[in-house]
Amino acid sequence: MFRDTLNTDMEAPENIRGFADYLFEQKDYLRAFTEYSKLTGFINDTVQFRMASALGEMGRYNEAGNLLNGLIGNSKVRTLALHELMKNRWLVQDFRGLRTLCDTLKISADAADKSCSPLYYASYLIDSVSLPGTGEFENAFPPGSRDFMKGMYERKIKKQYKSPLKAALLSAIIPGAGKIYAGQTSDGITAFIVSGLLGYLALDNFISGHDFRAWTFTGLGALFYAGNIYGSAAQAQIFNAGIKYNFQNDLNIFVREKNYFKP
Amino acid sequence: MYQKITKYRVFLFFIAIWTSAIHAQKYLDDQMLKADNLYASGSFYDAVTEAKRLIYFDKGKKYFVKANLLIAHSYKQGARLNDAIRHFTLAANQLRNDSAWFNVQTEIIRCNILRQTSGQADIILSKLSADRRFASREKELIYWRGWNYMFSDQWDRAAKEFAKNDDFRALRVICEEVQNEKYSVSFAKVISYILPGFGQFYTGNYLSGFMSLAWTGLWGYLAYNAFAADRAFDGAVLTGLFIRFHRGNAQNAEEFAEQKNREITDKTLNYLQYQYEGLKP
After folding, report:
1. How far apart are CA B219 and CA B226, in angstroms?
2. Is any Cβ of chain B less than 8 angstroms from the Cβ of A12?
3. Which of A6, A139, B95, B218 could covalently link to B101 via disulfide, CB atoms 3.0 to 4.6 Å apart?
4. Closest CA to A127 of A156, A147, A100
5. pTM metric for this prediction
6. Distance from CA of B267 to the nearest CA of A (A)
7. What confidence tens digit (pLDDT) does each residue in A68-109 have?
8. Number of cross-chain residue pairs from A and B with Cβ atoms under 8 Å apart
9. B230 touches chain A (CB under 8 A)
10. What is the ipTM of this complex?
11. pLDDT digit string (tens) for B203-240?
């Protein structure tokens, strides 16, 4: 009570700071940022870092980056700021930028700065550049993570993607083959049977002289054949999107669980 | 003489402490008033900020309940129902007065109704009904249980609930009207299986019904003709087409019935939101 009676100015810098920290701990990042912003003239490195973290949590990565860039010089939160910057670059998928930042850290004498290696090498798995060698890649991770990351490396190399062009061509030659290639076996068999059936009916009716029916089945068959080709290419694209999504999801979950965003 | 001066100093010291205490109390009172005024003026975001500021500085938790209730109401106004429920719960946990606690529980029920977590609302309603302390407030529980049923599209159960009290006659009538207006989805589907197109006629979609009748009739007629002319293979294929169109017709009738029902319930909920004058979630 005595402490409260003496310090009732809510707008005093120390009180604003205390309230802002309280909001930050409650994950009310927008309000925390607004309160920190009121500390004009009293914003130290720690406050600036918290402001950047709050912006990052809200998805405002560019603004966060501007604040963090001011902390990677000679500040007591330099390592934290660099890791936060790398996290933001990961989240906006600027992997080249992430690796450049990590290279900056690696030449530092501070051992804590070198802890960005796992994130550095993990970024190769999502980026579209060539992968480093297996040995170099695995050694970047602590022993407990190596098996998993080795598995992810192999998944990346094996390239289980399907070619939409190949799927379309296969279905053009043998209706349904493209769908089977893209992982939809039952759809492929159905497409094969129906296309074949319609083709047979068309031919049979032409031979029997039933022209109207023959042309009807020819038209239906042609539509179905075209749809089968298009559907096969689309299915291959869907398949690839699923592979990519699951891969990135598995990696993101792993990176967060292992706290690779923190030094 | 020395004793007199000492007593005088002690007296002044206590006066200073007492004055400071009054001032400390006043600044918390002022902060609560500020938050209340912001809420009253519709500045819900700022109201939450100032109420949270109050909670932070109020070490004695004098305004803990009131501030959390204000935050909860502000979040509710902003449709942030999860946050609203969290703060209502924080307030409820500190309440010792049964009546006040019950009032907060009904606020939580209302938030659950709005976010359509009717199961959760039902659990709280059941607990309150079973609690003998609140036997005299059963009427309120009937009211909110009825609303819960309405929001979970159980209009017949809502009508039965409102029927338990004459004061809710208007809502009972509304629920009964909705229930009578709604189409039977299963009837639409079954009648379409028996008479293709009639499910669509039942729901007022005459063109679609006619098309379903025509297509199904065409394939059925061609299949019959094919079998009659000993063209068994053609007949089999045309029968397949008949079956596909027949099934599609039934699915179509079912979808139309569901769509019509959605329109009816949306219209009623719209009326309740903008024209019903009683208490709403």
Report:
1. 10
2. no
3. B95
4. A156
5. 0.78
6. 37
7. 988 888 788 888 888 899 899 999 989 998 888 888 777 665
8. 43
9. no
10. 0.77
11. 999 999 999 999 999 999 999 998 998 888 788 888 98
